[in-house]
Amino acid sequence: MIFNIYYINFPKVYEIKMMLNNMLLAGQTVEKDKSIEGEAYLKTKLGFNILDIFKLGEAEAGGNIKGSGSKKVLETFEIKTTKSVILDEVVKNCNNFNGFDNVSEGQLIKIDDVKLTLENEAELRMVKFMNSGAMKDLVVPGTNGLDMNNLFNSMFKDYAYKIKGAIKNDENILIKIPLTFESEFESSYSVDDLFVGKVSIIGLYKGKIKIDDLKNSFQYFQELGQLQNTFQTTATATTDDSEIEESHYTTNEENQTFNFTSSGDGKEYYYIDLLAIIQNVNIK
Questions:
Q1: Residue 149 to residue 131: CA distance in whole angstroms
Q2: In the chain, what percentage of residues exceed pLDDT 70?
Q3: pTM of this prediction?
Q4: Is 241 helix (H, G, I), strand (E, B) or coil?
Q5: 219 Cβ contact partners less than 8 Å away, ≥ 6 residues apart
Q6: Which tens digits make up the pLDDT trace of 42-95?
Q7: Closest Cα partner for 271 from 187, 206, 181, 194?
Q8: What pairs with residue 31 in β-bridges?
Q9: At what angle do helices 148-155 and 217-237 cross, to 10 degrees?
């Protein structure tokens, strides 16, 4: 099987491969030995009429010709251990997938012809912007010189792409890819390349979950901040000065907040602990 890798969680794939077979072929030597041996005997019987005159009889000449040859060819092949080679053995041990009715939790499966869509796009774009260094020298009043860039880096360590996938029998899967801000994808691919055409998903089935079950620190602090704003708004409304409002703000504008969390549509998805995303290659 030949395939192109979009994404691979190599540590997970490597560990599974080692449990299947912990031997890696490092080199190969082929020897070819050719030998030739031959033996010939030449016998010639000579007769001379002139010798009959002198009664010398007949003369016989003979000879042996022997020959031998040997040829030895030594060929050495170097075996490259690449991510594709290691992943290929994992793919060969995947269970046949014909729907989730016959799949139990923990099974290693490969799902073909999956159409992917990004669930948390608005939130993701904001996270990438905040972690791109645009706020590197930002100083917030009242924070005593707190480095906001380091704060964002700590908050986004467990952030991930939340990706939904639609398969043939109208079933929907959910996967996530950790965001590293460097090179999550192979061969200079980006997340947007996953949504062009259909791909194959390799991973472990983990049961049904909802989108909001995939928590992260950024979402937690965002929800915490919204909760605090709600408490502050409620407390302000109960004071004696609650009737005094600034002329350039309306009550609705004050209560508006940026909500970048996932949609939380309430639906259940088949969650796959992702090992790799590949594209099958058809060759002649």
A1: 7
A2: 55
A3: 0.68
A4: helix
A5: 123, 261, 262
A6: 455 555 555 554 555 555 555 555 556 666 666 766 667 789 999 999 999 999
A7: 206
A8: 74
A9: 120
CB 174 within 8 A of CB 272: yes
Type of residue numbered 1: M
Q: What are the tens digits of pLDDT across the range 223-278?
A: 665 555 555 555 555 555 545 454 444 444 444 444 555 556 778 999 999 999 99
163 strand-pairing partners: 118, 175
d(CA 118, CA 176) in angstroms, rounded, equals 10
User: How far apart, in whole angstroms, are the C-alpha atoms of residue 254 and residue 121?
Assistant: 26
Identify the bridge partners of residue 270 per DSSP, sorted by sequence position: 173, 208
CA–CA separation, 132 and 89 (whole Å) = 38
- The single residue listed with the structure tokens 């005094």 is 244
Question: Tokens standing for 33?
Answer: 């030995």
Q: What are 120-152's pLDDT values in tens digits?
A: 888 887 777 776 666 666 666 655 656 666 666
Single-letter amino acid code for the residue at 170: D
- Reported as a pLDDT band with limits 50, 70 and 90, residue 165 is very high
Q: Are 67 and 38 in contact (CB under 8 A)?
A: yes
111, two tokens:
């799902």
